Please model this.
Amino acid sequence: MKKQQENSLYELNRTAELYLTQGKLEEAIIACNQALEIVPDFPPIYKTLGNIFHKMGEIDKAKEWYLKAINQQPEWAEVHANLGSLYAKEKQWQLAIKSYQEAIGIKPNLPGFYRNLGKIWQQIGKIELARDCQEQALSLEAEYPQALEYLKRGKKFLENGEIEEAIAYFQQAIKFNPSLANAYQKLGDALVEKKELHPAIKSYQQAIEQKQDLFIAHHKLGKVFQEIGELDTAIIEFKLAIEINPNSPLPYKKLGEILEKKKN
Model:
């Protein structure tokens, strides 16, 4: 797959996820279908379609897309968990348990997986197992304040120009709370300061995976793509930033710069 084609697919997927967050489900499906017209075999779109149909209450369609995603990427913890949620809705308890156990085996530090598995154990009368899961969830969540402290100290290091220290603290914040979108975003900022632009792109993308409507991550991702000359991808990110926050002048300015450059 060509780099430009790959970027287009990821941007369409991000657009679909943003529409999903905003409740624009038909628009989200259209964006997914546009991606599948480019490459029919693209697991992130399968996951997003699963999420869309899950939200629409179309359980069988959602399962179909999640299973397609897992067939391509078996180590995808969130998709296993999403499947577990669907099976639980249908009271297919053993399949739900298996799915959540798969998710926990891949990502053992996400409390939501344990909490949902605990609810399933409770439904089938396995009270001890339910209690064990809830305790594990609480234990992991107890580390969240520590993650915020690492994030706070990392920001201070970044403000003082101590980039290596900032990176180390942001990475620790992510370790203690893998869902902390701001930690990925600030890690991206620190990597930009080091001129490590491709790792920065990955960090901004991870921030957006955690929080699709994180305006600043879309805007900064657009700036990095602009800097490395991937202007079409930058345009898409700035447009997504505008979709999220149409009142900010920042992405309009950057978008104007690119469109002016493309005219010349």
